[in-house]
Automatic annotation (TrEMBL):
SUPFAM superfamilies, per database record: Metallo-hydrolase/oxidoreductase
Name of the protein in question: MBL fold metallo-hydrolase
Organism: Marinomonas arenicola
Pfam families per the UniProt record, alphabetical: Lactamase_B
PANTHER family referenced in this protein's UniProt entry, alphabetically: ALKYL/ARYL-SULFATASE (PTHR43223), ALKYL_ARYL-SULFATASE BDS1 (PTHR43223:SF1)
Residues of the Metallo-beta-lactamase domain: 12-74
Coiled coil: none
Domain of life: Bacteria
Alphabetical list of InterPro entries matching this protein: Bact_Alkyl/Aryl-Sulfatase (IPR052195), Metallo-B-lactamas (IPR001279), RibonucZ/Hydroxyglut_hydro (IPR036866)
Amino acid sequence: MDNVYTFTGYSVQSVSMIVGKDGLIIVDTGIDSASTKKVLAIMRKITTLAIKAILIAHEHSECIGGILVFMKEGCPRIWAMSNFRDEAYSFKREGLSA
Ligand SMILES: [Zn+2]
């Protein structure tokens, strides 16, 4: 599949990009803005298509920590499981930050 890219080694979580005909889908966002900015810079060497959506695998910080970097590129849709908020709530209840 030459329209799917996975970027590893920038943080503990890989960030993936699916290139469609008129836009991109991002799968997970990395753990923080600093590492995700590096990933985005490489993505932009591959394509300048707009980010249409972000798919979040689950509520942990390694999946959502870099989301603001992609949000600043536009206003993409964010797709997550229906119980995302419930899981994030219990995560915070335990004294951890998402
Ligand atoms: Zn996780």
